[in-house]
Batch of 3 targets.
Target 1
Amino acid sequence: MRIFDPHIHMTSRTTDDYAAMAAAGVRAVVEPAFWLGQPRTSAGSFTDYFDALIGWEPFRAGQFGIRHYATIALNPKEANDPRCREVLDLVPRYLDKDGVVAVGEIGYDAMTPAEDEVFAAQLALALAHGLPALVHTPHRDKVTGTRRSLAVVAESGLDPAAVVIDHLNEVTVGLVRDTGCWLGFSIYPDTKMSPERMVAILREYGTERMLVNSAADWGRSDPLLTLRTGEAMLAAGFDSDEVDRVLWRNPVEFYGQSQRLDLDSVAEQATYAGNSIMRGGA
Amino acid sequence: MNPRSGSIRWGYGTNGFTNHRLTDALDVIAGLGYTGVALTLDHHHLDPYAPALARRVAGTAARLSALGLSVVVETGARYLLDPYRKHSPTLLDDDREVRLDFLRRAVAIAADLGAEAVSCWSGVLPGHVSRRQGWDRLLDGCEQVVKAAQAAGVPLGFEPEPGMLVADLAGWHALHRGLGSPDGFGLTLDLGHCRANESAEVAECVRQAAPYLVNVQVEDMRRGVHEHLEFGAGEIDFPPVLRALAECGYRGLVAVELPRHAHAAPEVAARSLAFLRAASGQPAGQPVGQPVGPPGQRRPDRQPRRAGLAELRAALLHPAPGLRAEGPAWLRGALAGVAAEPARIGAFFAAAGRRCGREPLAAVPGWSADEAARALLLSALPAAEVAGQARELYRHGDAAERRAVLRALPLLPVGPDAVDLLHDAIRTNDTRLVAAALGPYARHLDAAAWRQAVLKCVFMGIALSAVDGLDRRADRELAAMLAGLSAERHAAGRTLPDDAARLLERLEKGN
C-alpha cells in the first residue's frame, strides 16, 4: 500500500514517527502551516516556522525516503491577533517556493470579521499564484462554518476543483459533496473521524475527490491512521485499486494542480503495480 | 615529483566551429573553460587573403588575450586555396607555390598572434607525381617554411596525416632527417591518428614523439579508420595517454579536433572538456595550467570566477539534449529581468528549479541545473546589489535556494563579506547546506571555524571531497581533533569514515 498523507503536522512529530510511517508505506506528505499550540506573538516567529516547513522538515523526511511538501498561510486562529497580521504580507514569498503546493490552512476558527478578511485575502493569493487551497473547517459550530466557507470559496473565483474542504464528517460531507470541491477527512483516535466511520462514508459517497489524512499534530493523534483506514477499506470489501485511489492517486491529483509535485523516485518505490502513476507536473 | 596529467592545457580547434563566427567561436571556447584554441585559417575564420588582414589579426590577438586563450595556427582548411579540390594545392602539387605562399602567411599571422606553433602537413601524393619527386618537393617546401618560421620565431609543427605522403611517425622522422634536423622543425601529433595507423600503443607513441612535440591534437579514433570521433566513440584508453603526455614534459596545448561536429559545436566542446578533465583527473569548473612562452607573450591568468560562470552559462543556455527545452528561453528572460530590475530576483530565484530542472549538468560536474541557474541569476545583478541580494535570498530561501547561494558565493563579486552565511549554514544540521558551505568560499572562514566545520562533516558523514583545499589547509590541530574523534569512536566500537581516517593518516605522516 502506498500512502500520500495530504495533511499532517510533522513538525510536531518524532523521528520514530517518520520511521514508522515509512515502514507503513507513507511515501509523501503535505504539512499545512497551522498553529503550534502556543500562540505566536510576532511575524518573525512565523517566518522561522515557514522556513522550517520548506527547509529542515523536508530534509528530515528525506532521511526516511519520504517526500515532504507544505501549504503556507496565516491560520484562522492567529488571524485574530493583530500582532500576527503582517504575516499576510510574507505569505506570497513562500507561495513561490518549490515545496509549497497550496495555500493553507485557511478558513474559520471562530468566524470573526478578522477571519473573514484573512480568509478572503488568502483565497485571492491562491488564485494569483495558481495554487490550490486547503480550507480548515471549524471544530465548533462546524455546519455553519462549513456553509460559510463554501460561500466564501464560491465568491473567490477559485475553481472548486482547486479547493479541499477539510475535517469533514458525517454531518458536513453532504454539504460539500456536490460543490465540486475536494473532501478532506481527518482520522483521529477519539475526535473527528475513525477508520470505520470513514469507510462507511466512502461506501455512501464513493471515492471520487475523497482525501483521507491523519492530521497528526501535537495533540493525541496517530500518523498511521491513513494505513489503518486503508486496511479497514480492504476488510470492508474495497479492492486495492480503490484504496490506492484514496490514499495515493487522489492526493497526487489534488496537489498536482500546483505543478510542483515531483514523485518520480518515491512513487517507483511503491509496491502497488498496474496503475498509471499520475504525476503532478514540474 | 612527476607532473600529473591534471596540468595539461586544453584547447579546441576552430575547424570544429565552422558554423560560428570566429569571435563567437572564441567566446564559446573560452566560456566553456578551454584555455587555448587551435585556429584553422579559413575563408570565414581570419581569411589570410581578405582585405584588412593586419587589422583583423590585431583584433583577434586582442580578443584571444582578453579571453585568456593561447593559440596555435592550423593550416588544414579544406577549400581555402582551391574551391574544387579539397586541401589543394599541397606542397607536392605542380602549383605548390600557392601552398608555400599560404604557409608563409600563416607563419606571419602566427607570429602576430603570439601563437605557440604553426602546423602543416605534406598532402596526398598526386597520381602523376612519383614518390621520389614528391619527397623532393616536400623537402624543398619544408625547407622554405622552416626558414620563414625560424625568422618569425614560431615553432613549426609538421603533422603526419593518414593517407598523406607523410602518414606516420616513421615518415616524420624520415622527413626530419632529410631536412637535416633543423631547429624549429617540430612535430604536431594527432593522438587519434596514432590509434588509427601506428602499431605502437598511443601512450608509447607519445613517449617516442616527446622530444619533438610542439603541438598536440586529440580526439577518439578506431584502428585503421581515419575518422575523428567524439570521446568515448572510439577505442582510445585516454588516462594512460594523458599521463604519458604530462610525464614527458610537454607543456603546449592539447587541442580537440572534431571538424565534423560543427553542427553541435558548443555541446560537443562542453562534453569533450568534461571528458578530458575526468580522464586526466582534473577538477571540473576551473581552467588549470599556465600559459607558456616568453613573459612578454604571456596571457593573463583566467579568472576562475568568470570561467565558472561562463561554463554554467554555456551548459544552461545551450543545454545537452534531455534538459528541458523551455529552460534556456526562460533563463534568458530572467537574466535580463534581474539585470534591469534587481528586486525581481526573488521570484525568479524561487522558480529556477521548476523552469530549468534539477538534473545534474553533465558538462559541469558537481552542478545541478537549478543551482547553476540561480548562480547565473545572482551574477546578472548589478555588482553593487549582489552581496545584499545574496544575503536576502539566503535568508528567505528554501534549502535548495540556500545551497545555490552558498555555491555561487565564490563566483560572485562579494569579497569576504558574506562569510556570515557560511556560519549560518554550518550551524544547521542539514548535510546539504554544511557541504555547500565548504566550497572555495570557505577560504574566508578563520582556522578555528574551518576546523570545526571539517570535523562536523566527519561527524555527519559528509564526504570530505566536499571540502575545498582540504589537504592544503588541514593542520596539526585538525589532526588532533580527528584523533580525538577517532578515539571516541573506537571506545564506542565504531570507526571513522574512510576518508577521514586517510586524512588523519596523511596528517600524522606529515608531522
Target 2
Amino acid sequence: MPKPFKSQIVTANDLMMGDVIYLTPEGGWSRDHADAIVATSQDEADELLAQAQAQQLKIVGPYLAEAVLDDAGRPGPVHFREAFRTRGPSNYHHGKQETAAV
Amino acid sequence: MYDYTDFDREFVYGRVAEFREQVKRRVDGSMTEDEFKPLRLMNGLYLQLHAYMLRVAIPYGTLNSRQMDQLAYIADTWDKGYGHFTTRQNIQYNWPKLADVPEMLEALADVGMHAIQTSGNTIRNVTADHFAGAAADEIEDPRPTAELIRQWSTDHPEFQFLPRKFKVAVTGSPNDRAVTKAHDIGLRMVRNEAGEPGYEVIVGGGLGRTPMIGKVLKDFLPKADLLPYLEAVMQVYNLHGRRDNKYKARIKILVHEESLETMQARVAEVFERIRDDFEVPQDLIDHIESGFQQPAYKSADIAPVFDGALRSFIDTNTQPHKNPDYAIVTISIKAIGQTPGDATSDQMRVMAQIARDYGHDELRISHEQNVILPHVHRADLPAVFAALKDAGLATANVGLVSDIIACPGMDYCALATARSIPVAQQISEAFADLDAQRDIGPLKIKISGCINACGHHHVGHIGILGLDRAGVENYQITLGGDGTETATVGERAGPGFAYDEIVPAVQRLITAYLDLRTSPEEEFLAAYRRVGMAPFKAALYPEQAEKANAA
C-alpha cells in the first residue's frame, strides 16, 4: 500500500543573498515559512517543484520539505533541519532570527 | 613567508577576474546553477543552510599580520565580523552575498591569499604541522615542501576532476601534530641511514564514513623525488580510483581493495617512467626556501614568573621552541562557552598586532582550530599574555577538556545531520573551571555533525558523532581515538545519546576516568588503553550495568 501523502512545501536559497526562501501561492518567494504554498498531493508537489526549478534567476537548490499545518492552516517545518533553517544558527543571533519581529 | 612571484600574482588575480565574469553570467542567466556550481566550488564558494559560505585557504596554516588584518577587514566589510578557523587550516566566512564574493577574493589576492581548490574533487589546501619552523623536535621545516606541493597541485590540469577530493598533510617532526595518518597522503620528514632528510610517504588514511589509518607506501623518498612520486601516486589514483560510488572513491578504498603491494607496484612503474621528465628548477626551490628562513632572533633577559595566572598560561599554552630562549604560544580560540575556532575581527586584529610586536610577524592556524604565535621570546610572554587577556584570548585550556574541535555542524553545514557547536559549548561550560580541567589533564574531545567527520571524531580521545535518528538528533560516542604518530581509530561505545543526554554522558565518562586512573600522571588515553572499554561503557550506560549486575 502506498504511504499516505504528507503535506509539503518548496524551499530554496535566494540566488543573490543565499538566505532561505519558500515558494508562495502567487509563485513568488517569501522569507517566512508560514507564507509557503502547501502541496496536498504528490502531483501538486511535483508541479510546484517544477515551477520553482524554472526560476533559476532568483533561486538556488529548490527541494520539497515536509510541512505541518497549525490551527490557522499555516505551514511549519517538521524536521529539525527545516526548523533550524527558519531561524538561523544556535550559536549566534544571526540569520532569520536576527531580523525577526519578536 | 613565501612571497608571491609575478606569476603567482597574475594567476590569482586572473582567477578573481574569471570568477567575477562567471558570477555575472550566472546572475544574468547565461549560465545555469548546474553549470555555475562546479565553478563556484573551485573558488571555495559553497551554499550552506542559511547562506553562502566562502572557504579561504591558509596554506600550511601560515600567515603574517597583514594577512590576518585582511581577514578581519573581509569579515567586517562583507560578512558578520567574524571568521571560523577550520580543521584543515582554512577560514570560513558564513554570510557572504554572491555579488560580494569577487570583491572578497580580490581582497584576498591583495595579500597573497585565495580560495582556490578549497572544494571540489581536487588536491585541497596542503596542511602542515602548525608548529612548523619553530618546534624543538623538528627534523626540517615542512612548509617549503607544502608550498612546492601547493604550486604543483594548483590548477594541475590532470588532477582537477579526481574521483574524489584529495588531502595532503606534511610534518617535519616525529611527533605528528598534522594527523598525517588520516590523510589521503601524509608526508613525514625522516632521515635515512646516511642522515639525509627525505619523506616517509603514507597513503590511504582518512576519516569519514570508512575511517582508515594510512599505510606506508614508501619508507624513504629522497626530497628530490617528491613531485614525480606524488605525480605517480595521483596518476594511479586518477586511473584506478572508483568513480561508480562516491563513498568508495577515496584513495583509501583503492588501497584497501587492491592492496598496498599493488599500489606500490603501480606507483613504482609510473614513477620510473616519468621521473626523468620531471625537473623542478633550482631557482624555484631556492625562492620557496628563502621564504621560510628562521626569524632574526633577539636577546633579552628573561625574568622569573611569579604571577599564578601567567604561570598557568605558560604551562598550558606554550610549547618548547627550537631556540630555548623562545616559546611557541598557542592562543586558544576556545574561550569557555564560545564556538570552537571562531574569532571576531577585533580578535584577529589583536593577534596580528601581537604578532607584529612580539612574534616576528608570524601566525599559524592549527587543525585544532587555534591560532599560534610560533616565535615569542620568553621575555615577552608577560606582555603577550596581558594583550591576549584584554582581548578575551588568554584562556589557558590548550590540550584540555574544553579545547574541543567541532565542525560547524547543522548550525551551518548543508551536509550535517546534527549540531556540533552547541554540544561543544555545553561541554566547555560544564567543565568551565580551569583548575579542574588541569586536574583532568590532557584530553581531546572532537565532535562531528555528520559521518563525513570534519570534526575528526574518530581520532578524538572522546569522539562524538551527531546523527539524525528518525528525525531527532542523536550522538554516538567513540573512545580511544588518537590522531598522532600512534594514530588509532576510536571504538564505538554503544547506542547513541539524545541531544540533552550527551553532555551528562561525557561528564560520566570523565568521572569514571578520574576514579580509575592510577595517578594524575596517567592521562585519559593511557587509562583507556590500560583498562579498555568496559568501565567506560558501564559509566555511559549505568542502567545496563545495573541489569547485568542484577542478573
Target 3
Amino acid sequence: MDRRNFLKRLAATGTGIALSGTVGTLSKAHAAKGGKEDFGEIKSLKVHCISETSWFDNATLGKDIKAAGGINTNQYDVAYTEENLGGYAALVEVEALDGSKKKYLLDTGWSNDWVDYVFAKDGIDKMLQSKEIDTLFISHDHIDHYFGIESTLKHQPDIKIYFPGTSMPKSFELLKGADFSATPGCPKNSVPHTGELVVTTPDKLYKIQDGMALKFFDCPATLQVRGENVLYFKIKDKGYVTVTGCCHPGILTLLSHARRNFKDGNKNYGCYGGLHISVFENWDPKFDDIIKGVKSFNMQKIGCNHCTGWIWAEKAEQSGLPIVHGTDKNLSYKKVGSLSRAKTSNVYLGNGDEMVF
Amino acid sequence: MTRTQDRLFWLEERQLAPRWSTAVSGLVNLAALIVAVAIVWWVFFSIEGIFKLYTPLLGFSMVIWTLLIILWQAQLFDFWPLSRGFLENAHPLSKGAVLTLITIAVYLLLLFGIVWFIIGRLGITYFNWQSLAKYGELGQDMLSTRETASWAMLCLSIPFFLVGVWFMLGIGKDLFHELGQPKFGLANWLFVAVIAIPMYVIFFHPHLGSMFYPKQIYAAVPPWWESIAQTNSAEYTVGILFCSVIGVFLALNLWDGWPFDLVGRQPWRFFYFALCSLVIGYVIFRIQLYIFDYLWYEAYVGGQNEANFGWRYSHTVTMANFVLVIAIIQNTFFGPAYEKMNRIVGSIIKTVVAIILGLCFAWAYYNWGPTLLGVTEGVSHPSENASAFLILIINIVMIQDLFMDRWPGYQLKK
C-alpha cells in the first residue's frame, strides 16, 4: 500500500464519519410538528385502591411463568398457582369544576374469589348494581387486570367498557363469554358483555368528561400482551395527573406525551398506579435512570403500588421524590402480600388506601 | 509437535469450490441453512419449542459463547486435536458433528463448569442464578436471577470477542509462532484473557454491581459512563464494543478486509487493527443513533422502549447484526460471484446488497417473527432481542463453513 492510496482510503473513511454528523439534524424538524390538545379541567380527583395485590408472592408467580417457558409465554398458556392470585382494580372519583362527582372503575382484577371479596369490602358491587359506576376502563388485558371480568359483569352486564384494541383474541372472546379455566388460574366469564364497547386505538385521545381523557399507548408488555389505556386528568391550578394500571408505556413516556401534546403539558402534578419498573423486585441500572428522569419533571405527588417495585419506590423516596405513603389498612385484609408482610416501609399505597389530588 | 510457523492453518490450506454453479450452490446452502436454523430454533430456543432457552438472555448468552468457541477452534487452535488427515478426508457431516460436539463440550465446561458452577458458587455471586436467589434480598427469584446471570455471561463474552478478534486477525501467527498446537492456541487464548478480563471489569462490572439494592459500591464503582451515555446501563459499552466486533466482520465480508489491511508490520498492525475496529464500531454505532433519533425523536433519561437510551444502544447491535448476517451469507455462499469483479466495485455492490437485504430481513423478522419463530411482537420489546436469533444463524453458517467445508453446496478441491 503506497502513501497516496493510504490517504485516499483514509479520506473515504473521514467522509463517512462527517456524513454521519449531519443525519441527526433531521430529527429536530421531525420533533417540531403536532398541535397541543386541551380537554378541560376538573376540580379534584380521588383514587381509591380497591386492590393492588395482583398476586401475593413474587417467587410463586415467577416459578409458574418460568415453568411455562418464561416471560414471553402466552398468558393463557401458563398454569398459575390459584391460591397466589389477587388482582388490580381502582375506583376513580372525579369532581368536576361545578362540584358534581362521577365514579369510574379502572380494571377488574384476576381471581374472582379475591375480586368479589374486595368489591364487597368497598361496596363496589353495590355501586355497579345501582349504576353509580357505569364505565369500566380496562387498562390492558393482562391476567391481573382483566381475568376477573366476570366479577364486574355479573353486577352490571351492560357497563360501558373501554378496551385496548391490541388485546389478545382470547381476551375479546372472554368478554363475549368464554371459559379458559381448564388451565389453572385462567379465566372464565359466564356473563357476556351486552353494553357499549369502545375499542381504543393509538391515533386519538378519548375525552371522557371535561378535564379527563383516555389515551391508548401501543407498547410491549410481558406474556404476549400489548398496549395500555392510560387516564389523564387536568386539575385546575395544579396540573396533570396520570392514573395507570401498569404503566407499561413508562411513566416518562406519559409525562413526555403530556408535555408534547397537551396544553400546559409541562405542568405535571402527580400520578397514581403501577409504574411497572422493578416488578419482581429485581434491579437494573436503567431504573436509576427513571428516578433521575422523573425528578426532572418536578411532580408533587407520586402514589405507586402494584408493579412499581417496592425497591424502586424506596429508592425514589430516598432520592427525594414525593412518594405518598400508604397506611396499614391492607394488613386487615384476608390475604396480605409477602412484601407487605415484610413491612420494609410504607412506600406503597396498599389495599384500602386513598389518594387525593 | 509441528511449529505453527512451519505449516499453514487448515483454513489457509483448504481450497473450496462450488459443487455446481455459484448461484445453485449458494441457494442450496441457503436452503440447508434455513432448515438447520428452523430446527435448532424450534428445538432449543423458541418459547413454544422443547427447551425454551430463549428467555431471551439465556439463549443470547449461549449463542454468543458458542460462536466464540467455534472461532477459537478454527482460528486459534487450528481444529486441534483433530488430525489434518481427518479434516482432509472425513465427510463434512462427520466433521460437523464431531466439531459441534467439541464446541458444546467446551461451552459446558467453560461456562457452566467454570463460570457458572465454580466462579458463581465460590467467587462472584451474579454468575450463578442459584447463588443470586440464595443470597438475594426481596423477590430475587429464579425468573429474574437467571436473566441477571445470563446478562453477566453475555457481557463477559464481549471483551473476549473483541480482543479475540484483535488476536485472531490482527496478530494471527505473529506471536508464539514457534509453538505447536495446542500450546499456540492456549498461549494466545491466555493473552486474550489477560486483556479481556480487565476490560470486562471496567466496562461491564459497574453495571452488574448496580443491579442490586443497595448498589454494591464497595465491590463495583457506580457506572462511570452515566454522564456520557445518559444512562447507567452498560448497554452503552455493549453497543460500542459489539459494533466494533461487527465492524471487523463487515470489513472482512464486504471489503475483503479493508481498511484493516492498511498496516502490515507488527506491532503496529495489532494496535492499528484494535484502534481501527473501535473507530469503525463507533461510526456504525453513532450513525444508527442519529437514524433512531430521526425515527423516534430524541431519547430521554429514564424513557421506556424506543425512548430509552440503553435500548437504542443495544438496538444498534441488533440492526448491525441484521446487515452482518446478510453480509456473511453473501460472502460465504455466493462469494465466487464477486471474485472476477474490480475490488472496489465488488465491495460497493456487496455493501449495498447487505444493507438493503439486511433491512428487508429486519422488516420480515419483526413482522413475521411472532408467527414463524414464536418471538414476541414489537421492535422495542423489553424481553425480546433479535440478536439471539441472528447470532444463532451466524453460528450455523460458521459450522457449515469452518467445520463442514460449506457442505452441501461446496466441496474441497483435492
